[in-house]
Amino acid sequence: MKHTSARGLWNAGFVSLLLTQFFEAASDNIIKGVITFAVAMGGPWETTFGEGGNGIVGIAFTLPFILLSAFGGRLADRHSKSRITMLLKSISLAVCALCAFEFARGSAMGALVALVAFASVSAFFGPVKYGMIAELVAPEKLTRANGVINMATNVAVITGLLIAGLVAKHWKESFVDGAPTGTAAWQPGLAMAAFVLLGFFTCLTLPRLRAQSPDLSVNLDPFSTYITTIKAMARTPLLAVAGAWTFFYLIAAVVLLILPDYSTYLSVGDDETSYLMAGLAITIGVGCVTAAYLDTPARRLWFVPAGAAGLAIAFLLLGFAPPNYGLTAALIALAGLVAGFYIIPLQSMLQSLAPDESRGRVLGTANGLSFVMGAVGSGLFLVLRQLGVPSHRVFLALGALCLAMAVLTVVTRRRFGAPPTAG
Fold first, then answer.
1. Contacts of 177 (CB under 8 A, 6+ apart)
2. Who's near 148: CB < 8 A, 6+ residues apart?
3. How far apart are CA 297 and CA 420, in angstroms?
4. Residue range 358-379: average pLDDT?
5. Residue 29's Cα: distance from chain center in Å?
6. pLDDT grade, residue 422 (50/70/90)?
7. For residue 161, with 0-12 CB atoms within 10 Å meaning exposed, 13-18 middle and 19 or more buried, which class applies?
8. Looking at the DSSP assignment, which residues form a beta bridge with residue 176?
9. What is the distance between the alpha carbons of residues 130 and 417, in angstroms, rounded to a whole number?
10. Which residues pair with 179 in a beta bridge?
11. Calpha distance 227→263 (Å, rounded)
């Protein structure tokens, strides 16, 4: 594999990718956050989707990733990843305009369509950005690059969620006769537009990268790519690593659906609930960077099961915790810190174990599978809420799942300890 001439971690290409990913993640979380607050208990669109309606939003958000990630990975192998990024950022500008209009007129279904369009662009960008890391930095810097990217992403999530909470508060308060009014009606769209524009400008500074497999045929059937790639991954530790990595996204999807309902459970405003979500994001980022700098092949044998066990403890405590804001914030912070130790070793192994010529397809397949798991998580949340389980008690189910994963990864830890070329 050929890397760019600046092989150190903080080369210009990596910084450009870092900033582009930051603005992408922030804009995604603004739109998703505002919609989630709008359909949560007490929101103006609560009755549109019914009880547990944010589960429906979660499923709608995941579908483009399931259908398009493998195709996006195939394009990432066939074409220059930097050129694809510029094209995707250009499309994002049009999608942002659609989103601004639908929020301004107070259309729940229109906003959902805009969310799906945003998710479709992100589905193509996923395998591109993660595949690009291995082309921009030297192999020995890969784990740290992943830690930094994840930290930046989680800071972006914090930024997006904080803005979403503040914007949602004013936007919801402006509703008159079922529609937002005044300047508040345009706040969600303007907030997203600022970050989409910044992401477009930063991607223009990416170095020109060569295509890894320019002769790869175009196949519009995403499922054939999934099947072929999964069969190849099954012959190596890649499939086991991908399975453990995607499990995290089932958990994350449910957590992000639970927390908006804490506005009612804790009797606090949406802005204060967004602080909880932001706290989770920043502690995940801190955990990711810490895990990246402490990672070694020997430690990696235990990082993944230890992270899963830590998540189990935090979630079980949250499920039994009384409605106390400070205690809830502390337990969410604990979950975020240990999550980094679970996800970073797995993500680095995925990138380094994937062959150069098929890295885009491997990461696209893993990305698609992660959103299948996200859809499963959204469905789990929806079912439990329909059965009358309070949102905060759903954490008990997550704790049980994480405990099972901790046991599984201890039993099979040798498969997760295969040392990648990056360290």
1. none
2. 9, 18, 289, 292
3. 8
4. 80
5. 9
6. very low
7. buried
8. 179
9. 21
10. 176
11. 42
C-alpha 286/C-alpha 304 separation (Å) is 16
The answer to whether the CB of 81 falls within 8 A of the CB of 1 is: no
- 3-state helix/strand/coil string of the chain: CCCCCCCCCCCHHHHHHHHHHHHHHHHHHHHHHHHHHHHCCCCCCHHHHCCCHHHHHHHHHHHHHHHHHHHHHHHHHHCCHHHHHHHHHHHHHHHHHHHHHHHHCCCHHHHHHHHHHHHHHHHHHHHHHHHHHHHHCCHHHHHHHHHHHHHHHHHHHHHHHHHHHHHHHHHHHCCECCECCCHHHHHHHHHHHHHHHHHHHHHCCCCCCCCCCCCCCCCCCHHHHHHHHHHHHHCCCHHHHHHHHHHHHHHHHHHHHHHHHHHHHCCCCHHHHHHHHHHHHHHHHHHHHHHHHHCCHHHHHHHHHHHHHHHHHHHHHHHHCCCCHHHHHHHHHHHHHHHHHHHHHHHHHHHHHCCHHHHHHHHHHHHHHHHHHHHHHHHHHHHHHHCCCCHHHHHHHHHHHHHHHHHHHHHCHHHHCCCCCCC
**Alpha carbon distance 190, 166 (integer Å):** 13
Q: Are 242 and 366 in contact (CB under 8 A)?
A: yes
Cα separation, 130 vs 137, whole angstroms:
12
- The model carries a pTM of 0.68
Domains (range + CATH), the chain: 12-206+221-416 (1.20.1250.20)
* Cα-based torsion angle of the residue sequence 370, 255, 330, 34 in order, rounded to the nearest 10 degrees: 110
Q: Could you give the CA distance from residue 288 to residue 148 in angstroms, rounded to a whole number?
A: 8
Distance CA 35, CA 390 (A): 21
**CA separation for the pair 251, 336 (Å, rounded):** 12
The number of angstroms, rounded, from the C-alpha of 91 to the middle of its chain's C-alpha atoms is 20
Token representation of residue 58: 């979660």
Q: Measure the CA–CA gap between 270 and 385, rounded to whole angstroms.
A: 20
Q: What's the whole-number average pLDDT of the chain?
A: 83
254-269: pLDDT as tens digits: 998 888 888 888 888 7
Please give the share of the chain, as a percent, with pLDDT higher than 70: 91
Would you say the C-alpha torsion 202, 285, 415, 406 has a positive or negative sign?
negative
